[in-house]
Fold these 2 entries.
Entry 1:
Amino acid sequence: MPGQNSKQNSNGKAEQGAQRCSQGHQLREPPNTGWNGPIPAKDGGREEGYLQKPPYSWESKEFQVKYRAKCWCGKLEFEYHGDPIDAKHCHCTQCQRLHGAPFQWAALFHKTSVRLAKHCDPLNLDFFSTQEGHSEHSVPCKISCRNCRSPMA
Ligand SMILES: [Zn+2]
Ligand SMILES: [Zn+2]
């Protein structure tokens, strides 16, 4: 679609080269949060040692927590660096069934801007691979709390 990669900002200046994904979200370079490796499971699927990589248990001094989100029982808490890329309500039937609700509200972050809080045991993570239909960790996947079952991501 012509013009899709440029838009006017509030100052009337054209913002050039802002890439958008298929859902129309603007794709900016991820902020520097101190992760130097490749983006884990960038193209989906399984990855060795994923629990020690973003968005799970990893540490860096560049990561500055701006937001936190925890499940109902508190055994899972995620930390977020900076502001979300975007936020959306999704009314698709997959989201309705996965969340048991008329829609899902999601705030979108780069994977390297997310981590599991230090006090959380990764054994409390539960996964559901939406492409493969099983509960092993394979991206894309949904994340929930193994204890209280709250959907987290
Ligand atoms: Zn919980
Ligand atoms: Zn949806």
Entry 2:
Amino acid sequence: MESPPFSSTMVSSASAKDVASETNSSAIEWHSRRWTWGGPISLHRVLCMQGGDDDGSYAKNSDAPASAVTLSKPLLLNAIQSMKLFLASKHDDSLRIADLGCATGYNTLATVNMVVEGLRKRYVEELGFEPEFEAFFSDLPSNDFNYLFRTLSGVVPADCSREMSRRRYFAAGVPGSFYHRLFPRAKLHVAVSLSALHWLSQIPEAVTNKSSPAWNRGRAWIDGAKDEVVEAYARQSEEDLDDFLRCRKEEIVEGGMLFMLMGGRPSSRQPCDQLGDPDSRDKHPFTTSMDQAWQELLDEGLIDEETRDGFNIPAYMRSTEEVERAMAKCGGFEIQRMEYRRIREHSEEKQEEWSRDPASYGRSKANLVRATLGPIVEAHLGRPLARELFDRFQRRVSTDLGLLAKTCFYGVIVVCAIRK
Ligand SMILES: C[S@@+](CC[C@H](N)C(=O)[O-])C[C@H]1O[C@@H](n2cnc3c(N)ncnc32)[C@H](O)[C@@H]1O
């Protein structure tokens, strides 16, 4: 079967890059509180992974989420094996799959491909026909849908072409937040969300409010922060997961599947211990080196304290208990499987290679943070200062050999649930 065409396309609206370049941002001093969270521009307008395919793009820096895709594969295929088959003949309606928080690049294509292939094999073997599939690629409007559509159309980087040559589904883009309704009632047979649900819908206002006990002074994130800060994030996370589940409960057909993989922490850990072990705490790109890079900008007089403290990373690692509680509160789903796993930041061979070449390690880590945080940092600081920040981060990471010798793990929670 030839690759079917798009059934519809949506082109991304303003990316953070566009937003920043709309303003006169050439001066190094440029920064504007207009972009702080809770201000006139919402996080949803700027949060995205870096688009395109250059060295700082998400497409080129998604090894950890790629490991998450690999980890998901047996769990997802196993779940597909036990799923209800919906169609009785090839003339029936299509099977509809959504990837929520799809970003761009190989991971989203591999994920959708995995689901389509798993279901297709079952239909062929058990019912003797091949159904039609529709795949919905959904992300925030700031996502680089143009790049995604180009890969789907076959204008692809080499590492995607193998997946693409086997594309057996109609494709559509759906811009919007997964914390809102994205599809009509009972539309989806499978909804998948990989490495996305730990991104919150917003930064809790109190965290950037100087007069609040939850003011997160001197930190870009919440690992190790004071209780009030962490509690504010935990409340936001709970609200967000409730919204996500309530919307999916409407959209997924009875017997359909919800598969989620999100950043998570071991259940035994308090929320202020987001990363679960001391080495990961030290080495994670959102912690020490990031805070030091912000502090350097401050010490050099390039930004003021208010600007530094106005930036917070909108991510929260849930525990399995927190996810379980939200699922029970929402109702309508039967959890088939839920577990916490750890993903090594990179292989032992890579670690050895990098200890011989710390500069290339620094480059690689800086590219990773550019890919994931670039758009929101640029929205907060403007492009020139964002560049300065990432350069300092890179220098720090390249020169701290003690840190390089440590091993960082990313914790994830995997959940497979069936809509009752
Ligand atoms: C780390 S990427 C993961 C992408 C892809 N699923 C993968 O496995 O490589 C997280 C994605 O979630 C998206 N995202 C974050 N918050 C979102 C929201 N509220 N609604 C939709 N997508 C969101 C981001 O824009 C980003 O593309």
